[in-house]
Specification:
This protein has helices spanning 20-23, 82-99, 136-140, 142-153, 167-170, 213-222, 238-245, 257-269, 284-290, 312-329, 347-361; strands at residues 6-14, 28-30, 34-38, 46-50, 56-62, 68-74, 106-111, 120-125, 128-133, 157-162, 175-181, 187-191, 194-198, 228-232, 249-254, 278-281, 297-300, 334-340, 365-371, 390-396. The chain is of the alpha/beta class and 397 residues long. The protein folds into three domains: 6-74, PUA domain (Archaeosine Trna-guanine Transglycosylase, Chain: A, domain 4), CATH 2.30.130.10; 82-187, Transcription Regulator spoIIAA (2-Layer Sandwich); 209-396, 3-Layer(aba) Sandwich (Rossmann fold), CATH 3.40.50. The relative contact order is 0.09.
Length: 397
């Protein structure tokens, strides 16, 4: 008989009239919807979720410490065992291999709730995996997940980079360690024929901004030879490399000298001469305020200014400031790709911020496009909160 991971002695009872979101397949149950918990349990257990009138609704991780009281794994009354998780991982892998592997050997293999594995993110960099765990339940099943990843993916090494701001809410501590095999100092990946070095151990996120893959390609197609492009918050030069390969002269600005040195190496890796481009160690806000030159294309891809709901107002001011400065200083008929990776910066709010920035800059601005995650970062249609990346392509007249 297959080992079950469920606590069959406990169950969550929802308040009267509070089963609607679960009925609509939303994978999170908040504490305000819970009437009581029956039976003994440990935080992180997998338990049944029932409506007030005792009808089965779902099964998922329970954690009373978190605002997300329960994270749904299945809306069907099926066994939650090793085969359950094997099927979920295999399904996620099959989709990426079918639609993404031919374009890149660096992509998101598992995207948490969107792939039915709440609290687990896995990024693939060639023959290596970087794992992020953000829920207590998934933390308790870490060894199972690693064994399944070894079985199904056969990587040469697995690194954990669990460092998100949500860890404290789940009662977890940050982790950065090799879980299996070996991890090289740098890994080379290729996307759309463009090569990059990735530092998975010390780099931002899991080492590279995989979610901007299609936007990098888009920028490469939009630039023309001789165009001067400013890449703000450039990190290791992703947008800059694509632009330079298509004939642009680029200026990459980042606060980290280490990131810019890796950007120079990425230029060399693609047959580009970094000495023909500029790499500036600076605070982007200061650089934009003080720069006297103008550009025809500006990339604004800042870190998340809004990490918690209470930071929305302050973070929105930050987004407005950098966009106002960019809109003020870009050449006529210039393009700006303005991005936000803040979960709480919704599309409507972001567009209002850009409207306010354009008004204060006193420039005519058009929206040419709106872009979200690529296909390896799917968004569960029942879980809109899983969408975090928003990008606007603007034309400043």
């Amino acid at each position: 008989m297959m080992e079950t991971f469920e606590n069959v002695a406990a169950r969550i009872i929802l308040k009267k009239g509070r089963a609607k979101s679960v009925n609509n397949f939303h994978p999170w149950v908040f504490s305000g919807a819970v009437e009581r918990v029956e039976g003994e349990f440990e935080p992180g257990d997998i338990v049944r979720i029932h409506s007030f009138d005792d009808q089965f609704q779902a099964k998922g991780f329970i954690n009373p410490r978190s605002k997300i009281f329960a994270r749904v794994l299945s809306f069907e009354d099926v066994p939650i065992d090793r085969d359950f998780f094997r099927h979920r991982i295999r399904r996620a892998l099959a989709f990426r291999e079918k639609y993404l592997a031919r374009f890149s050997n660096g992509y998101r293999l598992i995207n948490s709730d969107a792939d039915g594995l709440s609290g687990l993110i896995v990024d693939r960099y060639q023959h290596y995996l970087v794992v992020q765990i953000s829920s207590l339940g998934m933390y308790r099943l870490k060894s199972v997940m690693i064994e399944l990843l070894k079985e199904l993916v056969a990587p040469e090494g697995i690194l954990e980079r669990s460092e998100s701001v949500s860890l404290e809410d789940e009662g977890l501590q940050p982790v950065r360690e090799v879980l299996w095999g070996t991890i090289p100092d740098r890994i080379q990946i290729e996307e759309h024929g463009v090569k990059f070095w990735v530092d998975v151990v010390h780099g931002q996120k899991t080492g590279f901004f995989l979610d901007q893959r299609e936007n990098r390609l888009r920028v490469g197609k939009l630039v023309q030879p001789g165009v001067e492009l400013l890449n703000c918050f450039s990190y290791t030069g992703g947008f800059s490399v694509y632009a330079a390969l298509n004939g642009a002269r680029t200026v990459s600005v980042d606060i980290s000298e280490g990131a810019l040195e890796l950007a120079r190496e990425n230029f060399r890796l693609n047959g580009l001469r970094p000495e023909e481009h500029e790499f500036v160690v600076a605070d982007v806000f200061d650089y934009l305020r003080e720069m006297s030159r103008n550009f025809s294309f500006i990339i604004l891809d800042p870190p998340a200014f809004i990490k918690k709901k209470r930071h929305i107002q302050k973070g929105a001011r930050g987004y407005k400031d950098i966009n106002r400065l960019a809109i003020q200083k870009i050449l006529p008929d210039g393009l700006i790709l303005s991005c936000s990776c803040s979960h709480y910066m919704e599309w409507d709010l972001f567009q209002k911020v850009l409207f306010s920035a354009a008004r204060d800059a006193e420039r005519d601005v058009q929206i040419l496009g709106k872009y979200s995650h690529p296909a390896d970062h799917p968004i569960d249609i029942y879980h809109p909160e899983s969408e975090y990346l928003k990008a606007f392509l603007l034309r400043v007249i």
